[in-house]
Amino acid sequence: MRPFSIFSIPGRFSDGQRRERRHMLARLGLAWLGMMQVMMFAFPGYLRGTPMSAQDRSFLDDAIVMMNWISLALTLPVVLYCAWPVWRGAMARIRRAHVSMDVPVALGILAAFIPSAHAAWMGRGEVYFDSVTMFVAFLLTARYLELCARQAVGQGGLHRYIGHYRDALSARADRAAIGFTVVQLAVAIAVGLAWYFHAPERAVGVTVAMLVISCPCAMAMAVPTAIAAAHAGAEAAGGMPENQLYRLMQATGRASRQNLYGAMAWHLLMMPLAAAGWVQPWLAAVTMLLSSLAVAANSWRLFKGQARRGARTPTLGAMAGGGVLMLKGQPHWPAQGRQARRGPH
Q: Which residues on neighbouring strands pair with residue 332, listed in sequence order?
């Protein structure tokens, strides 16, 4: 089984890794199923602006109330079970007085779910159950890709070297992403308050859209997906000389920076549009998924490029002289390889 498989579970996985993958896949499947059903029941709500007779309008209002209750029942397991890793991570960080990437996600879910549940209970007002389930489904899709990326790690000296480089990249990316997310949260709260005093009926929708856009899913995937591509490239090559490994690390660092800063640029583009009230919560969830898929595609491009170069490069067994020599599964670095051993900056 190839280590970068997404839906199959490689045989080399431990019981804990298998359990983690299966639980995430179960949550992902249930979230998508709930999202599709809730979107179907949300359809009558989009017909309110259609011209119709008073009798038809009364019938439509009664149907919307019933559909809202059904949507609430379908959204509850998505929020409580599928999004459980979000609640667990957010509460753990809040107890330590830290802000993690789970905190804005939890705020976005609560900001959409609580007013929607209240509106369903009262029988009037806007509901955002479709946006909540869509947000959770797209969020779990991004996190499932991230999980596969983290688990797609081979064995041997080359992979351990890549792992050390991953730690350095992750530390820098996390600092940048968390700071950026905190600023987005502050802006979302300030804009929500401004809309509350200017147009209260639109305040919830705008705030939910901004909180959804502030979800750092794509930024969280920036380094893991690039590192997974590097591992997969090293696995496909079976071994590589010192200069090729150094180029791989340079390309990996470049891809991770493209992922991170590209995701930030997307956030900066979408936040003003959401603040102006031009982005609905469901559309914000779609843009979140698209940015995460763009990160995964950019990392996949890194792997494909490495695979093409590896096909043109002789294997270690056919090489003579300098480069990386594998001794009992451990990399031996020649004297001229000290710069590559430290890793590119």
A: 325
Please tell me the total number of residues recorded for the chain in this structure.
Answer: 345
Cα first-last separation, the chain: 33
Give the pLDDT of residue 73. 96
How many CA atoms, within 13 angstroms, populate the side-chain half-sphere of residue 91? 6
Tell me how many degrees the CA angle 137-143-147 measures, rounded to the nearest 5.
140
Nearest-angstrom CA–CA distance, 140 and 215: 12
The total of other beta-carbon atoms located within 10 Å of residue 236's CB is: 17
Helix (H, G, I), strand (E, B) or coil at 154: coil
Q: Tell me whether residue 131 is exposed, middle or buried, using C-beta atoms within 10 angstroms of its C-beta: 0 to 12, 13 to 18, 19 or more.
A: buried
Per-residue confidence (pLDDT) for residue 328, from 0 to 100:
35
Per-residue DSSP letters for 22-66? HHHHHHHHHHHHHHHHHHHHHGGGGGTTS---HHHHHHHHHHHHH
Q: For residue 134, what are the CA distances in angstroms to 6, 20, 33, 47, 259?
A: 21, 22, 10, 20, 23
Nearest-CA neighbor of 165 among 286, 82, 252? Answer: 252
The CB density around residue 164, as the number of other CB atoms within 10 Å, is 11
Consecutive 10-residue averages of pLDDT for the chain (345 residues): 52 79 93 94 83 86 92 96 92 78 81 90 88 88 79 67 82 82 87 92 87 80 83 73 83 91 92 92 84 88 76 47 38 40 46
Residue identified by tokens 């090293």 is 234
Q: Is the pTM of this model over 0.85?
A: no
